[in-house]
Amino acid sequence: MVENGKTMQGILTIMEQTITIDRMGYGAEAVGRLENGKAVFVEGAAPGDVALLDIIEEKPSFARARIARLVEPSPLRVQPSCASTALCGGCPWAHLSYAAQLDAKRANVVAALSRTARFDKGRAEELVRPCLPSKRQWGYRNKLELGAALDERGAFQLGFRREGAHDVVSVDSCPLASAPIAKAPKALRGALRFAQGSQDLGIYRVGVRGSVRTRDVEIALWTKPGAFPRGHVAKTLKSALKATSIVRVMADPGKARKIKGVETLEGKGCWEERLGSARYLTSAPSFFQVNTAQAEKLVACVIEGLGGHVGEDGPEGLDGLLVADLYAGGGTFSVPLAQAGAEVLAVEAAGSSVRDLRRNADMNAVDVEVIGGDAARELPELGGLDALVVDPPRAGLADGVVESIAAAAPARAAYISCNPATWARDVARFENEGYRLASVQPVDLFPQTHHVEVASVFERL
Ligand SMILES: C[S@@+](CC[C@H](N)C(=O)[O-])C[C@H]1O[C@@H](n2cnc3c(N)ncnc32)[C@H](O)[C@@H]1O
C-alpha cells in the first residue's frame, strides 16, 4: 500500500487498495466499497472487476479512484468499438456488454424509486419493466454537438468537449452518430479551417443533425454575434456532408446564452425527421430527441399509457380526450396525440420550439393549441384535464407543478424523464397528491452511456 505517493502515471495517489466492483453508479462511473466501508467511484470499471485502485480523492462520505491494475477483469467487459472512448468521454459505458448496460439502467431506476421516492423494494422491482433496448447500439445518434476552439498556436480545433472541461478533443469521427453525420468532425474541421483562413469567425460550437429517414443533414454554426462572411462560409461548407441546410445561430458562449438571431446560410433553414407517420421540422436551437427509432417507442409508451394504441395506420383511440402536453418541444408527443383524436393543449417555453410546434401541427394537418410560456405558470390556467403528458428537462418539475396537476385532476398522467433522480423525487410528490404510479418503462435512447429515459404513467386514485 502506498500513502500519498505518485504512481508511474503521475496520478496523485492517497493510497492503493484492491477491491471488487459492485455495480454501475448513476453517472459514468462504477461503484465499489473500500475496506473502511466508504463508497468509491471508479471511472472505466465494471461490476465484478477485481482491481487495484489508486484512490485519488477521499471525502468524509465517499472516495474517487482510478484503476491502477485490473487484477481480474469482469466477465461483463467487452472491447469498446471506439478507440477514442477514453479521450472524449462520450461513451463511458462502452466497456460493458449491452445486456449489462440494460440491466444496470433498470437497476438504477429501481434504486431511484426505493431511495428517493421511498418505495418498498418489492414494489419498485415489480413496477419497473426491463429496459427497452435500442436496435442500434452504435450509429444511433441523429445529432452531434461539437466544440470549436483555437488552440494555443491559433489553429482551429473541432471535436468533443469532455463534460466539465474546456479543451476540445479532436476526434475524426463518432461511432455513436448515424451514417450521414458520423464523419462530421473531420469533414467540418477541414472545411471550417479553410473557410476561416487567418481570421477568427467566432465559431465556438457546431451542431450537426442527420436523418437516415429523410436524408436531411443540417450544419448549425454557433457564433458570437457580429460581422460574418455568410456567402463565403456557405460556399465553402456547401458540399461538406451533403448538407441540406446550413444555419448560423448568433449567441454569446456560456450557459446563459441568449439567442440573438438565426440566419440561413444555405438550403432549407431547418431539419426534417419522421417518427411513425408524423413529420417534424426542427430549427437549430430547438430540442429534438437524438435517437429517432427509440423516440418512436417513447411516443408509443405515451399513447398507450393514456389508453390509446399505435396501429398500422398510426396512433388512435384517444378521441375527444382533453390532453395537456407540457414541455412539448416541437411536438414529439403533441402531434401523435392529436393524430390519435385527442384535443391537445401544448405548453412550451422556448420560442424556436413554439414556432416549430405550430408549423409541425400544420404540416401534419392536426389541431394543437400551442401556448408559449412557462409550464408552471400556464398549467393553472388550463382548467380541468382528462389526461396529461410532462417531459421536463433534467431538473424535473418545478415546485408546485405536481400540485397544479392534481388541481387539474387528469385521470392519467404520462411522465417522461431523462433523469431518474428528479423523476423519483416527483414520483413521491405525485403519490402525495392522490396519484398512484402504475407503470414504469425504462427506454434506452443512449447506448454506451449511463443515460436512460423513463416513461411512466400515473393513475388518479
Ligand atoms: C426534454 S425536452 C422535451 C421536448 C418534447 N417533449 C420532446 O420529446 O421532444 C424539454 C422541453 O421543455 C422545454 N422547457 C424547458 N423549461 C420549460 C418550462 N419552464 N416551461 C415549458 N417548457 C420548458 C424545453 O425548451 C424543451 O423543449
UniProtKB/TrEMBL annotation:
Binding-site positions, S-adenosyl-L-methionine: 289, 327, 348, 391
Active site per database record: 418, 418 (nucleophile)
Annotated PANTHER family: RNA M5U METHYLTRANSFERASE (PTHR11061), TRNA (URACIL(54)-C(5))-METHYLTRANSFERASE (PTHR11061:SF30)
Pfam family, one: TRAM
Alphabetical GO biological process terms: rRNA base methylation
Protein name: 23S rRNA (Uracil(1939)-C(5))-methyltransferase RlmD
Keywords: Methyltransferase, S-adenosyl-L-methionine, Transferase
Gene Ontology molecular-function annotations: rRNA (uridine-C5-)-methyltransferase activity
Organism lineage: Bacteria, Bacillati, Actinomycetota, Coriobacteriia, Eggerthellales
Family from the record: Belongs to the class I-like SAM-binding methyltransferase superfamily. RNA M5U methyltransferase family.
